[in-house]
Amino acid sequence: MSDFPATPPVAELAVLAARVRDLRAARGARVLVGITGSPGAGKTTLATLLVAELGPDAVHLPMDGFHLANATLDALGRHDRKGALDTFDGWGFLALLRRVRDERDRTVYAPSFRREVDEPVAAEIAVEPHHEVVVVEGNYLLVDDGPWAHVRGVLDETWFAVTPDDERTRRLVERHTRHGRTPDAAAAWAEQVDGRNAALVEPTAARADLLVSGFRAARPEACRGTCRCAVGASDDGDPATAT
C-alpha cells in the first residue's frame, strides 16, 4: 500500500484553480482545460476536485462517455481490449468539444460512462451557458493520431498527470476487482490492456502544457524521485510543472 496521499491538498488545488481562472480572464471567454495521463494516473480524481474548487461555473467532461457500446465492440472484435484508442468514438468526441467551445449560448449535452453497467449513458452531462470552465478528462487527449491529433487544438491548455507505474497498477487492479473481476483477471487486464494503453499515452506528456503529480498536484517532491515532475515553470517550450 502506497504512503502517498491519494488526492492533492487543498492549497495545491487552489494553485491550479488560480491558473485556470487566470487563463479564463486572459481569454475572455469559456476555456477548455484538459487533464490527461495513463490509466490509473488519477485524472478523474484531479478533475473532480478541480471542478469543486472552481465552483458552479465549472463542469467536468470526461472522454469516457465516448466508449463504443459493448455490442459494437463485440461486432468489431475489440471487446477484449476495451479502453484502447480504437474502442472510442474519437471523431464524435472531437465534434462534441468543438460544440462546447463554440456553442456558448445554449446547453450542450454530452454522454457519461457508468461503470456499474459498463456502458455510456447519453446526454447525462449538461454544459450550460453559464459554465465558463470545462475540465475535459481522458487518456488520449494528446495522442497525435486520427481525430485525437486535433483535440489539443480545441483545448486552451492540457495537463498531464504523472504517477509512478507501480501505484497506477495498484489502483487499476483495485478498480477492476471492485467492478467484478477476480484478482488474477484484474492483474492481467491491468498489465495486458491498461499497460498497452499506457505505453501509448506516456510519451504524449511531452506535448502537455503542464505536468502535475497524480499524487500531489504541484508538489512533485512528494513523488520522492519516482516520477518525472520537476519544480519550476518553463518558457522554452517544455512542459511546465505547477509550483
Briefly characterize the structure:
The chain has 243 residues and is of the alpha/beta class. It has helices at residues 10-27, 43-54, 70-76, 90-102, 151-154, 165-178, 183-201, and strands at 31-36, 58-62, 108-114, 119-127, 133-137, 157-162, 210-213, 240-241. The model is unreliable at 1-7 and 217-238 (pLDDT under 50).
What does this structure look like?
The strands form two sheets. The chain has a six-stranded parallel sheet. The chain has a two-stranded antiparallel ribbon with strand order 3-4. The longest helix is centred in the C-terminal third of the chain and has 19 residues, at 183-201. The protein has helices at 10-27, 43-54, 70-76, 90-102, 151-154, 165-178, 183-201, and strands at 31-36, 58-62, 108-114, 119-127, 133-137, 157-162, 210-213, 240-241. It is α/β, with parallel strands linked by helices. The protein is globular. Residues 1-7 and 217-238 have low confidence and may be disordered. It is built from seven helices and eight strands. Strand 3 and strand 4 form a beta hairpin.
Secondary structure elements and their pairing?
Elements: H1 10-27, E1 31-36, H2 43-54, E2 58-62, H3 70-76, H4 90-102, E3 108-114, E4 119-127, E5 133-137, H5 151-154, E6 157-162, H6 165-178, H7 183-201, E7 210-213, E8 240-241
Parallel strand pairs: 1-5, 1-6, 2-5, 6-7, 7-8
Antiparallel strand pairs: 3-4
Helix pairs in contact: 1-2, 6-7
